[in-house]
Write a structure and sequence with these properties.
This protein is α+β, with helices and mostly antiparallel strands and 113 residues long. It has helices at 19-23, 87-109; strands at residues 44-50, 54-66, 71-83.
């Protein structure tokens, strides 16, 4: 296996980062994988729990619909656990996604000449 950079979202290396890498502003290096990472599907986010050292993101699946109450029936299906130190990186990814969506919406709203 080589240590060729791959796009964000790829599986990071299993080795712990050095002290220089933790404080560095350069992009991290990702190892190239033989197979794509496994996908997990969720319908939405149910909760965010923050403890002393970890953030837990609960995701849900819709398992049915209650016609009497006119509401979805949901179940928490996955929990993603991240170290608290990863929160700024997660926030940055979500902000980038928001900017991309805004840009796409602005392009669609412009009349074609």
């Amino acid at each position: 296996m080589t240590d060729t950079p791959t796009p964000p979202g790829a599986q990071p290396s299993a080795s712990a980062p050095s002290a220089e890498a933790i404080g560095s502003t350069s992009r991290p290096r990702y190892l190239q994988r033989q197979a794509p990472p496994e996908d997990s599907y969720a319908d939405g986010a149910a909760a965010i729990l923050i403890g002393r050292s970890v953030l837990k993101l609960d995701l849900y699946r819709i398992v049915g619909f209650d016609r009497e109450r006119n509401e979805e029936i949901r179940t928490v299906s996955h929990r993603v656990v991240l170290p608290v130190a990863a929160i700024p990186e997660l926030v940055q990814l979500l902000q980038n996604l928001g900017h991309t969506i805004q840009t796409l919406n602005q392009r669609e709203a412009k009349p074609q000449s």
